[in-house]
Amino acid sequence: MSIAEAGEFGLIARVVARLETGPTTLLGPGDDSAIVAAPDGRIVASTDVLVEGRHFRRDWSSPADIGHRAAAANLADIAAMGAVPTALLVALCAPVDMEAAWAEDLAGGLSAEASLVGASVVGGDMSSSPTLTVAVTALGDLAGQAPVLRSGAQPGDIVALAGRVGHAAAGYTVLSRGFRTPKALVEAYRRPQVPYAAGPAAARAGATAMIDVSDGLLQDLGHIAKASVVGVDVHTERFEIPGQMRDAATALGVDPLQWLLAGGDDHALAATFPAGVPLPEGWRQIGVVHDGTGVTVDKKPWTGPLGWDHFR
Amino acid sequence: MSIAEAGEFGLIARVVARLETGPTTLLGPGDDSAIVAAPDGRIVASTDVLVEGRHFRRDWSSPADIGHRAAAANLADIAAMGAVPTALLVALCAPVDMEAAWAEDLAGGLSAEASLVGASVVGGDMSSSPTLTVAVTALGDLAGQAPVLRSGAQPGDIVALAGRVGHAAAGYTVLSRGFRTPKALVEAYRRPQVPYAAGPAAARAGATAMIDVSDGLLQDLGHIAKASVVGVDVHTERFEIPGQMRDAATALGVDPLQWLLAGGDDHALAATFPAGVPLPEGWRQIGVVHDGTGVTVDKKPWTGPLGWDHFR
Q1: What are the pLDDT digits (tens) for B1-29?
Q2: Domain boundaries, chain B
Q3: Cβ of residue A310 closer than 8 Å to a chain B Cβ
Q4: What value of ipTM does the predicted structure carry?
Q5: Do A133 and B138 touch (CB under 8 A)?
């Protein structure tokens, strides 16, 4: 059954049936708006949109994969403020001949990823469109913590990373060359493993700045450097290149450092901490903040691409 | 300058320059997430997406018009819960050859409409896409009031309306027949005049159910009837058909009741109130709730189209 045959309200009913409700949902889908608990008295909110052909391909990822990734991209932005995600709202634009089951499986993936952090899909909208598009808004709660902005890094701080970098970019390269293995890299591209808990943990530990690494580590650290008016130096000896990634890089003729330093889509978190602060679980040092500008790699300028511009 | 020439970050800077910041914005655009005041401890949230060719046409509406309408569609959903809008988040998908000025003017329209209710555009995302798409999420605060759901209407309640119906539908018909006048109708389509304050006023006055009339009055009253397990009868003698609308209907060979009862896009609010409750300012009675099912017009079934299905 196509979504045109299901009709707008029929499709909404099918999709809503695939959603789980979490403890922060005071009113879920079905009314003009949803209502979500905001016990902190402040709400953290972020929007990320995924467009077919630009952010995903239906022949590379299942609808559930795309749901997981669309949710992860947004939930990571909430974690990067030091907050706990509470809710997602989803606008789905889809061609009228799309199978209704595709939208249902997308909803299942969105809901499952949100459930990992106790959040739920609380509302959304659907429209027909020639271009398959998934726009997600995530909400979150700061639980009394001060938010960790991009602008608080200080010279002398250390730069730390939680989660993986380069895996999704390697998987993307593998897929774009027509391969389906190594499976671990391809799966990393399809479903990022986001260190959600590391965000609030960093806030509690006194992180001075934090960002979701979505566009590439160097580009995103550049945002911290610019906002904080500091320089950042990344130490490549801190990165381990997994055997499978090294093998794939050799086979595909790619410098694996390019994946690690400029690849996006793993949704790692990067943060700065005052020197001497014990790093919370899951965080490891990868560089230092200094009294300068921009981002260097082993004290030298990086000559490769920095990351991703969604209009170029 | 096209958006591709401006680049993602250049375009974001241009767009953000067009936004006003309101009192509820604790952290505006520029970090991983925005932070919005949620003094009630609950947040009201809704998402509506507009797709070119489906919800708007660039030759019929200016980018500022489209911004106003995209904001209005979302802000009205917040008001329909009895809440006061506080923030918008906007995902813009646009062809790479689009003029950057178009996106800036869209942002200006979004921001100006939000300013009408003291809300602001606090964040967003942009991507290239073959299909121009504007997905908006609105947030709002209940200020201690219980939300007004669709499910609370009781037999014996009266049905009331705040704001205009049929004007936008008439304007749409005028434009779709290739005309540009009457200007008042065309302008109503381009920029709805939403009775935002009527939503919280209805909540304070004891409204038992409420909905944003976005798909057509009869279809949206049908949602209240279904959710409340009641019947609704609409009294056509309660509607005045403005002279311009009557003239346009005659000229175009349309039954003006069709515009009033089944036209969307004015974003009026419809609500039910216990009989005898004085209606707040801006509300007028248009029917009654009875112990039955479905929606009738002057006690008879309506044989015309009910409203809008975004997939048909």
Answers
A1: 999 999 888 999 999 999 999 899 999 99
A2: 3-141, 158-297
A3: yes
A4: 0.95
A5: no
